[in-house]
Amino acid sequence: MDILPILSTLRRHKLTSWLLILEIALTCAIVCNAVFLIGQRLQRMDMPSGVAEHELLQIQVADVTAPSNPYARLAEDVALLRQVPRVISVASSNQVPFGSSSSNGNIRLDPAQPERTLFATTYFGENLVPTLGTRLVSGRDLQPDDFVDVETALKALGTGESKSLPHVTLITQTLAERLWPGQNPLGRIIYLTPVVGLRVVGVLDSLARPNAYDTAKAQYTMVVPIRMGANKDQSYLIRTRPEDRASVLTAALAALKKADPQRVVTTKRSFDEVRRKFFQDDRAMAGMLVGVIVALLIVTALGIVGLASFWVAQRRRTIGVRRALGATRGNILHYFQTENFLLATIGIALGMVLAYGINLFLMLHYELPRLPAVYFPIGAVVLWLIGQVAVLGPALRAAAVPPVVATRSV
Amino acid sequence: MFSYYLDLALRSLRRNKALTALMVVAIALGIGASMTTLTVLHVLSGDPLPGKSAQLYYAQVDPQDIKGMQPNKEPPDQVTLIDGLNLLHAGRADHQALMSGGSVPVQPEQSSLDPFYVEARYTTADFFAMFDAPFLYGHGWTAADGEAKARAVVIARSLNDKLFGGANSVGRTLRMAGTSFRVVGVLDSWQPNPHFYDLNTGSYAYGEQVFLPLQTMLELRLDRNGSTDCWGNGGGGVGSILPSDSCVWLQFWAQLDSPAKAAAYKEFLVHYSQDQKALGRFERAPNVRLRNVMQWLDYQMVVPDDVRLQNGLAFGFLLVCLVNTVGLMLAKFMRRAGELGVRRALGASRRALFAQLLIESGVVGLVGGFGGLLLALFGLWLVRQRPSAYAALAHLDLSMLFTTFVLAVCATLLAGLLPAWRACQIAPTLQLKSN
């Protein structure tokens, strides 16, 4: 197909051509970035928690008046829950992965260093590793005699007396690699405060933070042997088989209620619900982006249909003359298809530059990574296809113009 | 002339129904999407206390140890209990309040109701006057009540409805966390958005059900919610243990009725920091901030990033819709070159043609704007179905309704300018000859 006649025709419709090119360019730029954003959100929603998600239940109960011995209370509750049929394991924790509410500490490798090395989540609770189902990669799990009551620890923190403070910790692989790249983390010391030095005794495969907003730092977690008492922020975590979750949750709540009818249950959910709730905004945003992409493509396609129809109507006579001079229907069809392809290509080329610019702006204002090059061909193919589909109707109509039109006045 | 042009415009639009519909739909979609997101942004970045917010200031001082000090670094976002009480007792502002959030179990007298937890605000006497909290019955507690750790409570209207059937409950007893409190006041529906005075508990659609004197909470050690930041050997506190003195966990607000008073108060905060340093409590040079409500919300970047992003996206979409409309309008006007040539030949000035074509695009804009309004209402309904905390706030107000139409008509007129100008450039004789 010779494109020179097409170009010379387009030169006579400069303004309209440029408008169409501009529309395609804007659409291409927005679609590239929107698809990229959707990818980011979907990737975030897939973030690993490191725990056996389909086997876990979370319960939080609150006492109307604080129990006289919260540690005994918690131990009683855990023992009660262990007796519920089909329960595999029970733990208590001050937080859960993707649970939003979090407890964190400043990590230093040297107690005298002025700035913290990083900010990591500190899980407190007994029996966490077997219940959560996170794997110990090396070292050992926390033992009962590692644990210190939280009040004892807080008092010791105030007086600076280190004997009554915890001395060991478990950390994730990611955190170990970040703190001591390529080295064995076992036996090394992390300082939470100048007096709290914790020796790494075990490395966990994976355990996400409750507020894992930043993917890179989502695994900066450690488990510290601090024994918490029963309080409304403490969670009971129950592990069971996926198919038993509903019945175990009901039975567990009944057992807790039976032990003290005055208690208020503030949370009762499966871990699937925890994840769904944590990523609900990402899901909504991804849905919205899909909606915008679809609407944009429809509007652009309709715009192409409108302009192409106008051009076909305007050039009826010319088409008739070409047909009378021997052009086949296929020639006419291809003419309009090629014309659209040309315009789309210029639009896409401009759109790529624009997409890159928008991405730079987003990187500056929303902490997004750079747009990977793979999104450019996606945008290009989508717009070429949309253009060809949109122009097909008008082009077929053009091809149907009979040669006899040439001899008549419009 | 206007009505004649309007008639011409309507005739022309009717002649080409598909093209007109295409333009109207494009405008409506663009306006609908951008008005939906703009309304959400407008609601979320609104002033929680119009008329009062400029006089309310959030105070920050820097009590941290010398470790990790950097010049120009912001002080902590909250205050320690000691500093909060010191500033409160200094009483240098027109009004001041120290506060923190929490939740308490309510034990209803009715046996039909199980105990339940409600969100609580532990604060000091001036809170209600400072933040213009409207009372349905009774009033707040006095500063003396607060110092005396009175078992007094102000409850929200919804809790009053639930527990007391909406009756005047002032003087009645409310049992919470095993302690009997006397209801001293009932607030009318009140929920400032954003929840500016404490953003740690959730920025939007968050409201406390009970308000208790802070000093009472300190004595009873009720449960705290929100954020606690510690340094050095500070421990965050748990259960009945309060956070240590090297932890910030309270908010301090001051009402300062004139800019001069605000400047003087900032000066006072500097002096206070110097005094504390002289006493050996503070280790850093005075590092204070005093922001009014809107400055504080801005500093805390309270509007979610996603909402800004959606707004940008919607306006990008509107731009595409407008370019689309310009193209279609151009096609439409150029197609009528013959008709326009005749009008020119009969003596119509370029200006008259221009006006006629602009009216035509204005009509498209108005119809598109109306469609956009319907779409925006639908869009806002969709937003309200979303799970985000702010979703429930997404409602169109009068000013946004007006903005919708202005935006729609302006946008289409703007889109009509280029095609109308182009169509007016046609030489009348050429058009007449070619036919």
TrEMBL record, chain A:
The chain crosses the membrane at residues 15-38, 285-313, 341-362, 374-396. It is found in: Cell membrane. It holds the Pfam family FtsX. This is ABC transporter permease. Keywords: Cell membrane, Membrane, Transmembrane, Transmembrane helix. It is a multi-pass membrane protein. Its main location: membrane. Residues 292-402 form the ABC3 transporter permease C-terminal domain. It comes from Rhodanobacter panaciterrae. Belongs to the ABC-4 integral membrane protein family.
Automatic annotation (TrEMBL), chain B:
It is a multi-pass membrane protein. It is found in: Cell membrane. GO terms for molecular function: ATP binding. The keyword Lyase does not apply. Keywords: ATP-binding, Cell membrane, Membrane, Nucleotide-binding, Transmembrane, Transmembrane helix. The chain crosses the membrane at residues 21-44, 312-331, 352-381, 401-421. The keyword rRNA-binding does not apply. Residues 313-427 form the ABC3 transporter permease C-terminal domain. Its main location: membrane. Residues 20-265 form the MacB-like periplasmic core domain. Pfam families: FtsX, MacB_PCD. PANTHER family: ABC-TYPE MACROLIDE FAMILY EXPORT SYSTEM PERMEASE COMPONENT 2, MEMBRANE COMPONENT OF TRANSPORTER-RELATED. This is ABC transporter ATP-binding protein. It comes from Rhodanobacter panaciterrae.
